[in-house]
Here is the input.
Amino acid sequence: MNEDQFKGKWNQIKGKLKQKYADLTDDDLTYVEGKSDELLGRLQEKTGKTKEQLKDEIDKW
Here is the structure.
């Protein structure tokens, strides 16, 4: 998934992630253009999943 695809899906996915991983905050889920790797790193820390696992999960939604 490239940066544009990620950006386009992100608003749809935020709510689903917050439901699935209750300890994620709005700050954790703030997407800044060009910072998808940083965001995935934060999600990785909070969920214990790899970046590839998270990308696959996001792609499925």
Notes: Residues 3-60 form one domain. The chain has a mean pLDDT of 80. DSSP finds three helices and no strands in the chain. The longest helix spans residues 3-20.
